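Hey, can you fold this?
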Amino acid sequence: MEAILDYYLEDGHLESIKNYTADSVERDRIIYEVIRVIDRVPLFYEDHIKRLESSFRLMDKNFSYKYDKIKDYLISLIEGNNIDFGNIKLTFDIKTDTMKVFSIKHSYPSDDLYKSGVNTILYHGERKILMLK
């Protein structure tokens, strides 16, 4: 299960994580964003929502969500799950017009890793672009 902690939101309603069901695995059906939370504040919130709007336009769908309403949902989840630090994922199923907001696992480097660095490799990969008809 991708969602963690006690609660998630589905279409704005706070629900027990026991009721959570995973989104469809169809790649052309789900639009999502992941927002980092530090000190109970969703970072770069407006940038994320603008990118969501852009994704909706690319899918030739109407973005009918209000920025303030989505922020209210994020705050509701932060308060419900008592999130100080973490990641929140917003998903939109464009076929059922369902929005979910939930916490997901996260991992960030410690201060020591920032100072000392990490070992890395080079990897060549290309992301395939999905073109809708």
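Oh, and this one too while you're at it.
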Amino acid sequence: MMSKEYQIGRYQIILPSDHLLDAYQSTWLRYDKALGYIAHAIFEKYPKSSAIDIGANVGDSAALIRQYSDIPVLCIEGNPNFI
């Protein structure tokens, strides 16, 4: 399967070539930004917290969370196409 690289904050993730994350984010500029803001607010109040991303897909949520704060993130994904 072909893939493409995509930048989220300081992280470069690899998307399957038919993944639409890049299209979604270019069409809807605030597509998933709230997650980063919320994670940052939680980490400010609870600095020893961490996040668990179940159904992590390609790691875009983890990259977004860590764009706002260096929160430890455990990613769990069962689909071999995304791992």
